Amino acid sequence: MVPLSRVQHIDVSQGPVERAFGVARLILHTAGTSHAVVVLPGLSRVKAEELRDSIRVRIRPEAW
């Protein structure tokens, strides 16, 4: 589990083998040095992008 306050950056990634099988990885970069990257492999590209967008909405700082 990663608190949303620790998430700094989110990526969706696919290597050639993943692309061939239609899967992707959601990668969360977090604050801190210990376990600073959390990877969720085996998601469909669409699902990974939906999760990325959903998390971005929640971590985006509010306008001043």
- Radius of gyration, in Å, reads 13 Å
Arithmetic mean pLDDT: 88
The share of residues in extended strands comes to 35-45%
State the order of secondary-structure elements, H for helix, E for strand: EHEEH
Report the helical percentage: 25-40%
Task: Sketch the major β-sheet.
Answer: 3 strands, antiparallel
Separation of termini? 29 Å
Number of helices: 2
Quickly give the structural class: alpha+beta
Strand order of the largest sheet: 1-2-3
> Poorly predicted ranges (pLDDT <50, ≥5 residues)?
none
The tally of beta strands, per DSSP, is 3
- Net shape: globular
What labels describe this entry?
64 residues; three-stranded antiparallel β-sheet; 2 helices; alpha+beta; 33% helix; globular
Could you characterize the architecture of this molecule?
With about 60 residues, the protein is of the alpha+beta class. It has a domain at about 1-35 and about 55-64. The chain is about 35% helix and about 35% strand. The chain is built from two helices and three strands, in the order E-H-E-E-H. It has helices at about 15-20, 45-60, and strands at about 5-15, 25-30, 35-45. Strands 1-2-3 form a three-stranded antiparallel sheet. Strand 2 and strand 3 (about 35-45) form a beta hairpin. The chain starts with 6 loop residues before the first strand and ends in a 5-residue tail after the last helix. InterPro entries: YdbS-like_PH. This is YdbS-like PH domain-containing protein. It holds the Pfam family bPH_2.
Tell me briefly what this model is.
The protein is α+β, with helices and mostly antiparallel strands and 64 residues long. The protein has a domain at 1-33 and 55-64. It has two helices and three strands, in the order βαββα.
